[in-house]
Amino acid sequence: MIGNDVVDLDLAKVQSNWRRKGYLDKIFTQAEQILIATADCADEMVWILWSMKEAAYKIDNRITGIRNFAPASLACSLAFSNDELNGSVSIQDRVYFTKTSVLPNYVHTIATAVYNQLSEISIEIYSQPNYPIDYKSLNAGCVSHHGRYLALVYC
What we know:
By secondary structure, the protein is of the alpha+beta class. It has a single domain, classed as CATH 3.90.470.20. The strands form two sheets. A five-stranded antiparallel β-sheet has the order 1-5-4-3-2. A three-stranded antiparallel β-sheet has the order 6-8-7, with no helix packed on it. Helix 3 runs antiparallel to helix 4. The longest helix has 23 residues. It is globular, with a radius of gyration of 15 Å.
């Protein structure tokens, strides 16, 4: 099973005021808040962590059938290796492995329950107006869209 999430950074700047009082406490663990506070680009780190949580939640929801997105209960950890941003998200006793790409206009994360499967995931990202006419018929393993971007992943 695979998950993914895409964040349109331009839209996120307009739609979200993550700096407002109490916002970070509702979404991020204390360790994640430290990552945000010490990041070279705090805005980018917020959306990296958010996309990791969303991608992992999409898998967890399908596995458990539980529809309870409580982002602060999902704990992210990050590792940089070979110019890649790899990480994991823990949800109770379950762990999902992630790989995140940060581009000038969007952040995209893929997730899987099996670490070795990360390298087998195919990614297609489209920007408006260049979406496939009927992307649902493409049978992607997971679909994500935000703002101008549509991300389809396959395994």
